[in-house]
Every structure is written in structure tokens, then in C-alpha cells.
Amino acid sequence: MDHKNRFGTETIRQLQQSLDEMAPYQATELSKQQAVRALLPQISALRAKGYSWTAVAAMLSKHGVPVSVAALRTYLRRAREEAASEASRPVTRRLRDRRAVTDQAEPPPIAPSPSQGPAASPASKPQPQGASPASSATRPATSAAPRH
């Protein structure tokens, strides 16, 4: 048995505890896009005060974030799109989480209504003409060309 790939439960427990106690990660440098995203409220406030895109880009460039008007507008559009998609994500997560909980219990089988009869059951599959359900399940599959 290879002991290099085995770990004591106490070692794992201590590692879990150490990792749980880690402070949140904070980046020391941001990309230009991340910087614009972080400055989104201030940039929006400047635009609301009547500053042009050119003036805002010039202010950012003057203060150490050189950015063109086109890049600034692109970064802001992306930031808004990401914010919009993140706003819709919790709903998706909650639905997914709810499904995961409800999927654990097996749902009862759905019986056809008396008016539908057994042929309209959701589990029935259309069969080719002249084929019975049993014959299609036992028939061997044939291929057009042999595999080598």
C-alpha cells in the first residue's frame, strides 16, 4: 500500500480548521477592468453630474488608471451585465437547491388518466410499425460498417 497517498484523519481535521480560519483573500493589484468595476459607483455619479465619457476617462488616466473612452464604456457595460447576471443567480441557485432536496425523495409514478388508456402513458415510447415493445428491446443493434 502506498503511504504517500494516505492521510491521518487528525491531519485532515487540523487542516480543515486552519483553512476555515483563513482571512478572506484580498488582491493587492487589480486589472484595468477590475479597477473600473470597483469605481463603478463613482463613475456613475460623475456621469449623473453631467461629465462626458471623455472627461471621466481623462480623470481616471490622470489618477493612474489610463483608459480610453471606448475601453471605459466596454468595461462599464461588462460590469453592469455581470451585476445583472449575479442578481439573477440567487434565484437560480435556490431553485436548484430546492430541486436537489426534492429530487432525493423518489416521486410517485404518474398513472394515466382513465380517458387516456395505457397507450398514452408518459413512459410508453412510439414503436416502428409492426414492432412490439419486446422485440425492439431484444433485437441486436446493427451498424453500417464494421469497426476496427
What does this structure look like?
The protein is mainly α and 148 residues long. It has a domain at 29-98. It contains six helices and no strands. Helix 2 (32-38) crosses helix 5. The model has no long low-confidence stretch (mean pLDDT 76).
- How many E-type strands? 0
| Separation of the first and last Cα atoms | 38 Å
Tertiary shape: elongated
The number of helical runs is: 6
Mean pLDDT across residues:
76
Considering DSSP H and I runs of 4 or more, what fraction of the residues is helical? 40-55%
Q: pLDDT below 50 for ≥5 consecutive residues: which ranges?
A: none
Structure class:
mainly alpha
Radius of gyration: 30 Å
* Content of β-strand: under 5%
Helices and strands, in order, run as HHHHHH
Please summarize the sheet with the most strands: none
Task: Give the helix/strand layout.
Layout (H helix, E strand, L loop, with lengths): L8 H12 L11 H7 L1 H9 L4 H10 L6 H36 L28 H6 L10
Helix pairs in contact: 2-5
List the main descriptive attributes of the protein structure presented here.
148 residues, mainly alpha
Write a short abstract of this structure.
With 148 residues, the protein is mainly alpha-helical.
